[in-house]
């Protein structure tokens, strides 16, 4: 556990991130003491990260919004239990993954609903060498493919390739070994490769 | 694959997820193997396409809706919490008041001396037979007066036992000669 914390800290840019951690620690302290504006600042700071991750994991914005709401309500409820000596973001990411797992299981029977591109904002793709692949239609297909992956493969892949965490960090969040995570990631990447070949 | 490197290894290699030793092995192998090189190129391409999803962001409206919902829920639960806190405080206060009242009552009860079992004794002449003493005397028990010496007087002692119940009085006739 200590090692994982060290990985997270190493992953960050030392100066700025340390300052950010100090700030968030202060906000948490105030929020735990009952300061609502401090909790709101935490919410504002992490809402995009949480909603984007939830949306990538669940593939449906409405579900992602429900999951994000639940994540922040749990944060509000259990913030006093958070160990302030440890980085906050992995704690939040782990909670997001767990909530998404619960939501995903609850709605497993729901028919796959395609993402609504209207609700998405895409970064300009003019400089992207693969922009020919990333039309709204292709993105929809990629999201569809992501949804079809087994839950564990999808989570590992999203955390590693879209969220940019290391395999060690992913293993820590998922509570499994690095070997297992590597296996899940490699399987998922091979499936993505096949799908992209089909898209051509 | 037509060589000893598995597809899994190559899928990890493209994102540097292999151990350093394994990574070096694959790297040394690639110039010699056309099939693996092609496979790695395809993987790199598919990874680039997949990673283009990173550029997608949820809209400000979607974020704002979540924030609104969370803050509304937090305000409600905070109100509930505050109300609950008051409720607990009042209940605690009530418990303290009840405890104080009970303790005070008990204290007073213990402070008031309980009516003791009074044992009175009166000396009677043996010939007279047992005769209840009409005049209660205190201290309660005088039946065990020390023997003053000389010949023991042949006397009988009547003990009157007074209980809490005024209707119950017990008389006890004692022969001082050991009878």
Quick recap of the structure?
The complex is a heterodimer of chains A (200) and B (179). Chain A is mostly helical.
What does this structure look like?
The complex is a heterodimer of chains A (200) and B (179). Chain A is mainly α. Chain A has two domains: 1-113, Rna Polymerase Sigma Factor, Chain: A; 114-200, Arc Repressor Mutant, subunit A (Orthogonal Bundle). Chain A has helices at 2-11, 14-32, 36-58, 61-78, 88-106, 136-148, 151-162, 167-174, 178-199; one strand spanning 120-122. In chain A, helix 3 (36-58) runs antiparallel to helix 4 and helix 8 packs across helix 9 (178-199). Mean pLDDT of chain A is 82; it is low at 112-132. The N and C termini of chain B lie far apart (121 Å). Chain B has helices at 7-13, 20-29, 34-51, 60-111, and strands spanning 56-58, 118-124, 156-162, 169-175. The radius of gyration of chain B is 52 Å and the shape is elongated. Chain B has a three-stranded antiparallel beta sheet, with no helix packed on it. At the A-B interface, helix 3, helix 4, strand 1, helix 6 and helix 7 of A face helix 1, helix 3, strand 1 and helix 4 of B. Strand 1 of chain A pairs antiparallel with strand 1 (56-58) of chain B, so a sheet runs across the interface.
Count of β-strands of chain B: 4
- What is the strand tally of chain A? 1
Looking at the structure, the CATH topology of the largest domain in chain A is: Rna Polymerase Sigma Factor, Chain: A
Estimated structural class of chain A: mainly alpha
Given the structure, what is the number of helices of chain B? 4
